[in-house]
Amino acid sequence: MQLRSRAILLWAGTLLVLTACASPIPQAKSDGAPRPAPAVKKRATLAASSSLVSVGSTFVAALPGAADVNSLLDAGLTNSSPTVVRAPQLAEVIPSTENGLWKVLSDGKMETTWKLQPNASWHDGTAFTADDLLFTFDVYTDKQLAARAVPLHNSVQSLEAVDPHTLLIRWKTINISADQMFSTTDLPLPRHLLEGPYQASKEAFQGIPFWTRDYVGTGPFRLKEFAEGSHVVMEAYPDYFLGRPLIDEIVVRFIPDSRTLVANVLAGEIDITLGRGLSSDQAAQLMNTWKGRVELDAGAPNHVSPQHGAIREPEIIGNADFRRALFQAIDRQEMANVLTGGLGAIAHSGLPYGDPTYREAEAGVVKYAFD
Fold first, then answer.
1. How many CA atoms are closer than 13 Å to the CA of 19, on its beta-carbon side?
2. Distances from the Cα of 346 to the Cαs of 7, 294, 298, 350, 360, in angstroms?
3. Bridge partners for 126 per DSSP
4. 243-255 pLDDT, tens per residue?
5. Are 114 and 124 in contact (CB under 8 A)?
6. β-sheet bridge partners, residue 14
7. β-pair partners for 43
């Protein structure tokens, strides 16, 4: 549902369906204080528009809903979203030049020091330490495994566990994304559970039960049940280092067929949908017949750009006034309304509206109104 060209830019994204009465999944408390379990158990039923064959970030394909499930089971050193500035999670603070934990050296290299949450633990109660991150790096950079490559790792020179709660990363070159280490596509792995299988057989490592029914993470919810092709059940982890979640149990049902997904939403069987899976027509149907709420989760717009100079084309295409005229001659807001059921908006730049940096960039963005 995303369309952007040199003359046409529209916002689209992932359609999210939320019931009006569903209890929201809360942000964890930052003081780390334990929360008593509520007297009445709170449950949420979610739907993913794909059928997950495993969990965890290492060997899971980028299927709709997979990242959402992982974010509930796992925690990274930091956490962020399109509308939230990056914040510390497993780390106490994010390294920066201001706090002295991010050092740019005179030879063009860098050092980042991570201070880990002292009370963070895996779902089996084992303490989370810097040794887990050393092991995680070894797994993700092992060329004998089919794990997804993490480009950020190419800039790393070495890692050192200074103590159980301090990790020093030495960088071969300047990399402005160093504060994203072990946070998105390279979430930490438990060394005490995986080092044995990893050393025993790298070929069999990717198929061990850990990636399905025996998964152990560090996130706010721990795996209770994994039924391949059917559903995942997660329960609140009482010892989560940022505080116990307010929701006690989350069920994620796998519903790849969008028509079945809509039927379940209308029947009141689903509280929230995860990832892509609904068309704009289906979203419009729900908005007109359903008591819940439909939102458009705006992502960065895709773009199609002509390669000027690579092929022969009319000279007028390179004229700025001509391209400006195209912008002003096309009613992009009406196109957004039609293509997204009235939920979309014009994209004046490549940044999502909810991006923390959008407001800073907005002042310098030229906007062409329909005229």
1. 19
2. 12, 19, 11, 11, 18
3. none
4. 999 999 999 999 9
5. no
6. 297
7. 249
